[in-house]
Amino acid sequence: MVHSLLPTTRTPPKIRTPPKIPSSAAVRNVAMEKIRRKKLNDRFYALRSVVPNITKMDKASIIKDAIVCIQELQEEEKRLLAEVHDMEMETELKDTGFPKKRRTLPCFALRSHSIEITELRVHEAGGRTIGLSITCVKKRDAMRKLFELFERLDLKITTASFISFSGSLVLTLFIEEDDITNAKTIQERIEKAIAG
């Protein structure tokens, strides 16, 4: 048996300090973090349940698969919109013998930005109510500018809804008129306000 010639060194014993009592703020922060993580995990589970093709169960894969699914849905939306447009054109050709011409109204400027209206349809909805549908190119502040236009025209809007798709914004309004006006008069007023 060979003894070591080197002196043995001992590590000094560690002095145990009593554990620190966490402050109430630290306890609250830990509790809030646990709640945040739980909500985040719950939302990942919800996302995983609606995405049809999940490849792996980790969070990064779930997000990647969700992105792929959204991109596929966007492509399908474009395809369906093109199909609907083609069907509308075919129907118009059958009914009138020539395709419906969409006219583009001149752009108008409000506060250094312009709005391009691609379609304006006005129809009588019954009684004193007039329906109005405006399709325009989706740009910054488009909704605000359209409503500024309606304010200038002093139109009494009873219902408004909008849809945004493929770079376009479709605004549908119902207007109530006090005096007897028809849809053509309203359309002329709107076109005049847009042009001038």
From TrEMBL:
Residue stretches making up the BHLH domain: 24-73
Chief localization: nucleus
Location of the region described as Disordered in the Swiss-Prot/TrEMBL record: 1-21
Localization terms from the record: Nucleus
GO cellular component term of the entry, any: nucleus
GO molecular function: DNA-binding transcription factor activity; protein dimerization activity; sequence-specific DNA binding
Keyword set, alphabetical order: Coiled coil, Nucleus, Transcription, Transcription regulation
Record Pfam families: bHLH-TF_ACT-like_plant, HLH
Coiled-coil region list: 63-90
Family the UniProt entry places it in: Belongs to the bHLH protein family.
The name this protein goes by in its record: BHLH domain-containing protein
Species: Vanilla planifolia
